[in-house]
Amino acid sequence: MAAAHGRTIPDVIGPNLRVLFCGINPGLWSGATGRHFARPGNRFWPALYASGFTPRLLAPAEQDALTALGLGITNVVARTTARADELSRDEYVAGGAALTAKVRTYRPAWLAVLGIGAYRTGFGRPKAAVGRQAETIGDTRIWVLPNPSGLNAHWTAAALGEAFAELRTAAAHIESERSKTARTETIGTEST
Questions:
Q1: Which residues lie closer than 8 Å to 165 by C-beta, 6 or more apart?
Q2: 3-class SS of residue 23
Q3: Minimal CB count within 10 Å: which of 20, 47, 64, 145?
Q4: 146 and 116 in contact (C-beta within 8 Å)?
Q5: Beta-carbon neighbour count of residue 72 at 10 Å?
Q6: What is the DSSP letter of 12?
Q7: Are 29 and 23 in contact (CB under 8 A)?
């Protein structure tokens, strides 16, 4: 595990995703395996399933299946550490800027930042709370979710599932609105 310190792992990403989930940074277990949220006890994968984002509980080794579901994973800070408190404020700010550029390139409908502290520091929003944010990045809406690490004892597994489900409901609503707009535009084009 110590050899994984400072490594980076590739994003699971593609254009026009429904939701791009953004962790704080990869842990050592993730750095060693090359998989996001890989540490046993991390509640990201169970929360995705409990919320209805995935049809079954996926393992970290199945992370590449997410893009077919319109989902992706990235991080605010790319380098692997044992704990998030090893990251500097400057790393969070630089990571927020890099993440903004990535979102502008890939244009997901939603960016879901998994960790209120990472969002507050990386995006300069010291009063942000969990949930939908007023700010957007271009057309991409932002939602802040609790950090799914097992160390975040303030949030139970059930509460995490509910928080993820709120985002899934909002994402489904936006997707439905996009479909209606696309159908209306197609009908308007066909009649001209």
A1: 50, 51, 52
A2: strand
A3: 64
A4: yes
A5: 25
A6: B
A7: no
Instruction: Indicate the SS3 state at residue 19.
Output: strand
3-class state of residue 89 by DSSP: helix
Rounded distance, CA 99 to CA 41, Å? Answer: 26
- CA dist 119 to 43, 49, 79, 141, 186, Å? 19, 24, 17, 14, 38
Phi, psi (rounded to 5 degrees) for 132: -70, 140
Contact present, 55 and 5 (Cβ < 8 Å): no
Judged against a pLDDT cut of 70, whether residue 190 lies above it is answered with no
Tokens 């985002």 label which residue?
167
> Whole-prediction pTM value?
0.90
The backbone torsions φ and ψ at residue 26, rounded to the nearest 5 degrees and listed phi first, read -70, 140
| Number of C-beta neighbours around residue 192 at 10 A | 4
* Token duo for residue 6: 């400072």
Q: What angle (nearest 5°) sits at the alpha carbon of residue 50, between those of residues 150 and 159?
A: 55
Contact (CB, 8 A) for 50 and 165: yes
Backbone angles phi, psi at 80, to 5 degrees: -80, 135
Structure token pair of residue 11: 């994003």
123: phi then psi, degrees, rounded to nearest 5: -115, 5
